[in-house]
C-alpha cells in the first residue's frame, strides 16, 4: 500500500479533536487496508499509526535521533544551511511541517533527483510502498556504535529522497516520536469494529481480546483474517503480558456498600512495583504494569519462582517490595526503584533485597482462571506457591464492617504499606483485565483536610526557574486524562517537593521531549515557557481539590468551573505507568464530590 494514501487520512486526523470523527476517519483507512491488495501491510499500518514499529508489548526499537540530527539531514539533502532550517522550524513550530514546506518549495521549482530503483515514479506523484518505508525505518532503528550518526544522516536523506513533501512530514514525526494525532487504543478498537464487523457494538469482544493479548497489530490482523470468531478464540498465552486489572477509589464509608454490602477481603497495598509473573517450564518472565519485560532486574525473584512455584506453567500477579537485610521491614518505593538498571544487577541484588508478595492467579496449567471468583483464585494461588523469605502471599483479612476496615488500614500503614486494597468476593468477583471497576477499591488515606489519595499527572509543560533554580525547569505543568474525549487537560502546576538533583534530572529528561507547540490532544489555556511531549508521569499529593478558573479539567464535559489541587507536592516519578493510566478527569470529579461530602 502506498504511504501517500495513508497520510491523507493522517492529515484529517491531525485536523480534529473529536473522537467520533477520528473513529470514522480511521475506519475509512482500515477499510482500505483490508482490501486484498493491501492486507499484507495492515499490521504495519496499525503500528505506524501509533507512531511505532512494533506493539507496546515488544521492545520498541528507538531511533536514537534528536531534532538536531534531523536538521543536519535536511540541510544535507536540500543544501539549505542549518541555521535557516532552524529558523523555519521555529517559525512553523514543527520539524515535520518545516521539512514539508522546504520540499514543496523545491518541487515548485521542478528540480529533479536521482531515485532508488525501488521507488515507482509517475508524472504526478511518488509512490512509497509501506513495506519499503517500514524496512528503511527498521534499518534506522538498528544503527548503533561508532560512525552511527553519519550513517543515520545518510539513511535519513535517502528516506527524504523517497518521500513526497507530505509523507516526509509524517515520517519525521514518527522518527521523533512526535506523531501527535491523539489516537488512543480504544479509538483504534472502535474503528476496527466499525470497519471490519460493520458495527461499533462488537467493540467489547475486540477489547476483551486486546486486554489479554495487548498487541493491536495482532488483533487487527486476526480480526481481518478470522472475523469475530477468531477474536473470541484468543486466550491467555504464557509470555504475553495481560493488561492488569485496576482499582477505583471512593469515600471509605461507602466501600462496603459498593462491594455488595456484605463481607469482603482487604489486603495490604504494598509500596512497591506491581508485576505479572509468567512461568513456562523453567522460563520465567516478569512484566511491569506498563507491560514491559523487567525480568533482568530481579534475578532473585526469577530463581525463587523457579524453585517454589509448583505448576509447570502459570501467570500470577504480585508486588515486589524492597526489604531490610533481615527481611523484617518493608522499605518505600524509592528503594525498590533503584533496582531499575541494566548494570550492576548482582550488586544491587545484595544491596536491595526484595520480596514478591503474590496476590492473584490468572492462569495455571493451560487453564484460564479469569472468570473464577477471587476466593477460588486465591485458594489455587496458595496451593501453587511454597512461601519463603523472597516470595510470600499478600497479607489479607476478611472484613465484616467499616470499623474493621479502618483498623486494618491503620495496621497496614504502621507496617509500611501504602494502605489497603478492598476486594469483592462474590461469584462475580472475576478478574477484569484492563478494567477499572468497583470490584477492587483502594484506600490510602482517612485524614480530613488532606487528599485521601495521591494523583498521577503527566507533565505537559514547564517554566524556567529563577534565582537558585535558574537554568532548571520549575514549576511543571501537569495534566490528567479525560477518557471520554481522549484529551489531556491541564490540572495544576507543581514546584514543591523536588530536590535540586530531582530538578536537574527532570530538566535533562524533559529537554529531549521539548516540542514547539502543544499536541492536539492537550487542552491548556495557560502558556508555559516550554511545551513537552506528554510522557513523564509524576505522583503528587496535595491539601485538597479546589475550584480554579486556571484549570482546564472538566471544561470539555461542560463544567465551566475547572478543578485543581491546592498545595501540590511532588512524591515520585511513575515509570510503571503509561500516559493513559494516569488519574482521569472523571476520577477528579468523583474525588471532589467525596471531599465535599466529608466536609458537610
TrEMBL record:
Its EC number is 6.5.1.1. It is an enzyme of class 6 (ligase). Residues 347-482 form the ATP-dependent DNA ligase family profile domain. ATP binds at residues 267, 274, 289, 319, 359, 436, 442. The keyword Metal-binding applies. One of its GO terms (molecular function) is metal ion binding. Its cofactor is Mg(2+). The keyword Ribonucleoprotein does not apply. This is DNA ligase. The lineage of its organism: Archaea, Promethearchaeati, Promethearchaeota, Promethearchaeia, Promethearchaeales.
Amino acid at each position: 500500500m502506498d504511504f501517500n494514501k495513508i497520510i491523507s487520512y493522517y492529515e484529517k486526523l491531525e485536523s480534529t479533536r473529536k473522537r467520533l470523527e477520528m473513529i470514522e476517519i480511521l475506519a475509512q483507512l482500515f477499510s482500505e487496508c483490508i482490501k486484498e491488495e493491501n492486507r499484507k501491510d495492515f499490521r504495519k499500518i496499525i503500528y505506524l499509526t501509533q507512531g511505532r514499529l512494533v506493539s507496546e508489548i515488544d521492545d520498541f526499537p528507538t531511533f536514537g535521533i534528536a531534532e538536531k540530527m534531523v536538521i543536519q539531514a535536511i540541510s544535507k539533502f536540500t543544501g539549505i544551511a542549518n541555521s535557516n532550517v532552524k529558523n523555519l522550524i521555529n517559525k512553523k513550530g514543527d520539524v515535520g511541517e518545516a521539512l514539508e514546506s522546504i520540499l514543496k518549495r523545491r518541487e515548485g521549482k521542478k528540480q529533479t533527483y536521482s531515485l532508488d530503483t525501488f521507488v515507482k515514479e509517475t508524472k504526478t506523484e511518488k509512490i512509497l510502498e509501506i513495506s519499503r518505508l517500514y524496512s528503511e525505518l527498521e534499518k534506522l532503528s538498528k544503527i548503533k556504535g561508532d560512525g552511527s550518526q553519519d550513517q543515520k544522516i545518510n539513511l535519513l536523506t535517502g528516506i527524504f529522497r523517497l518521500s513526497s513533501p507530505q509523507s516526509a512530514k509524517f515520517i519525521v514525526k514518527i522518527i521523533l516520536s512526535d506523531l501527535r494525532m491523539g489516537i488512543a487504543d480504544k479509538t483504534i478498537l472502535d474503528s476496527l469494529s466499525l470497519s471490519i464487523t460493520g458495527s461499533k457494538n462488537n467493540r467489547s469482544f475486540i477489547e476483551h481480546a486486546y486486554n489479554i493479548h495487548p498487541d493491536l497489530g495482532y488483533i487487527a490482523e486476526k480480526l481481518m483474517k478470522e472475523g469475530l470468531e477468531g477474536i473470541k478464540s484468543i486466550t491467555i498465552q504464557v509470555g504475553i503480558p495481560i493488561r492488569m486489572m485496576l482499582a477505583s477509589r471512593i469515600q471509605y464509608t461507602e466501600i462496603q456498600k459498593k462491594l455488595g454490602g456484605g463481607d469482603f477481603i482487604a489486603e495490604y497495598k504494598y509500596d512497591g512495583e506491581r508485576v505479572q509473573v509468567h512461568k513456562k517450564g523453567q522460563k520465567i518472565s516478569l512484566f511491569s504494569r506498563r507491560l514491559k519485560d523487567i525480568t533482568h532486574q530481579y534475578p532473585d525473584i526469577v530463581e525463587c519462582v523457579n524453585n517454589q512455584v509448583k505448576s509447570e506453567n502459570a501467570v500470577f500477579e504480585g508486588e515486589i517490595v524492597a526489604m531490610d537485610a533481615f527481611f523484617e521491614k518493608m522499605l518505600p518505593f524509592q528503594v525498590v526503584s533503584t533496582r531499575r538498571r541494566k548494570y550492576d544487577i548482582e550488586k544491587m541484588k545484595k544491596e536491595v533485597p526484595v520480596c514478591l508478595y503474590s496476590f492473584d492467579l490468572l492462569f495455571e496449567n493451560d487453564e484460564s482462571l479469569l472468570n473464577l471468583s477471587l476466593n477460588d483464585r486465591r485458594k489455587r494461588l496458595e496451593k501453587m506457591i511454597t512461601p519463603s523469605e523472597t516470595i510470600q502471599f499478600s497479607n489479607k483479612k476478611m472484613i465484616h464492617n467499616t470499623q474493621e476496615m479502618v483498623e486494618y488500614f491503620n495496621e497496614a500503614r504502621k507496617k509500611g504499606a501504602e494502605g489497603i486494597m478492598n476486594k469483592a468476593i462474590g461469584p462475580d468477583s472475576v478478574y477484569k483485565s484492563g478494567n477499572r471497576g468497583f470490584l477492587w477499591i483502594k484506600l490510602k488515606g482517612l485524614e480530613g483536610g488532606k487528599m485521601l489519595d495521591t494523583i498521577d499527572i503527566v507533565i505537559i509543560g514547564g517554566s524556567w526557574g529563577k534565582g537558585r533554580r535558574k537554568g532548571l525547569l520549575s514549576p511543571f505543568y501537569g495534566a490528567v486524562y479525560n477518557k471520554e474525549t481522549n484529551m489531556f487537560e491541564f490540572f495544576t502546576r507543581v514546584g514543591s517537593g523536588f530536590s535540586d538533583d530531582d530538578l536537574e534530572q527532570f530538566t535533562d529528561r524533559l529537554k529531549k521531549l521539548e516540542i514547539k507547540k502543544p499536541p492536539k490532544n492537550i487542552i491548556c489555556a495557560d502558556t508555559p515557557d516550554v511545551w513537552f511531549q506528554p510522557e513523564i508521569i509524576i505522583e503528587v499529593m496535595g491539601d485538597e481539590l479546589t475550584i480554579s478558573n486556571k484549570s482546564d479539567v472538566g471544561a470539555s464535559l461542560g463544567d465551566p468551573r475547572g478543578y485543581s489541587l491546592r498545595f501540590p507536592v511532588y512524591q515520585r516519578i511513575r515509570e510503571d505507568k503509561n500516559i493513559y493510566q494516569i488519574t482521569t478527569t472523571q476520577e477528579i470529579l468523583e474525588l471532589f464530590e467525596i471531599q465535599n461530602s466529608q466536609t458537610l
